[in-house]
Specification:
The chain has helices at 2-21, 30-55, 75-83, 104-113, 141-167, 172-187; strands at 60-65, 68-72, 88-90, 94-100, 118-122, 128-133. The chain is α+β, with helices and mostly antiparallel strands and 188 residues long. It has a six-stranded mixed beta sheet, with helices on both faces.
Length: 188
């Protein structure tokens, strides 16, 4: 009898260990859902930026999201030009740039020094206006947009090529053609 009780206890322990050792299973489409949610958030943010841009046309729109500030579209060229932050290309060729909260005062000082209109929105408070600066006729938004666009033109072309190559990395013929082109240029 004692042997059966020990055996039953051991089986119960094994069953308990296997049940607790299993990680909770995620639904099969969890990552697909997470990606869709992220895309929906970005689309919502972009819609808000577009709405703000209709009212405040030549303003840099900064949005506080977590521990970073983000800007989109033309504004990225200005922020990148002033502070040398990297421009990212999102889906549908939408440009994005971000910087940490710790750099906020530095960026705002640059915008004010260059007399560029800006508006800061807080995502936590339903995109409420946090801060706004309007230099009226002295606004130099377009000037710095053009300077930033010219400075980043080749970087953006390279980024687009890199993104294309990353999505087509299994196309061996494409990779071979690019390698041969690079090798031909090196011979010169």
């Amino acid at each position: 009898m004692e042997l059966n009780q020990v055996e039953a206890t051991n089986q119960a322990k094994m069953k308990w260990k296997t049940q607790t050792a299993k990680a909770p299973r995620r639904p099969r489409d969890f990552w697909g859902l997470a990606l869709k949610e992220a895309q929906m958030k970005i689309e919502r943010i972009l819609n808000i930026v577009q709405n703000v841009k209709q009212i405040c046309k030549n303003y840099v729109v900064l949005i506080e999201i977590g521990s970073f500030y983000y800007c989109y579209g033309k504004d990225t060229f200005i922020i990148s030009y002033l502070e040398k932050y990297k421009i990212k290309i999102l889906e549908n060729n939408i440009y994005s740039c971000s910087f940490p909260k710790s750099a906020y005062n530095k960026v705002i000082t640059q915008l004010e020094g260059k007399k560029i209109n800006y508006i800061v929105l807080d995502r936590r408070n339903n995109y409420e206006e946090q801060e706004k600066s309007n230099f009226k006729n002295l606004n130099s938004y377009e000037k710095y947009y053009e300077l930033g666009k010219a400075e980043n033109a080749s970087k953006i072309r390279i980024e687009k090529i890199t993104n294309y190559l990353n999505t087509h990395s299994k196309d061996k013929e494409l990779i071979n053609n690019i390698e041969s082109l690079i090798n031909e240029r090196r011979k010169i």
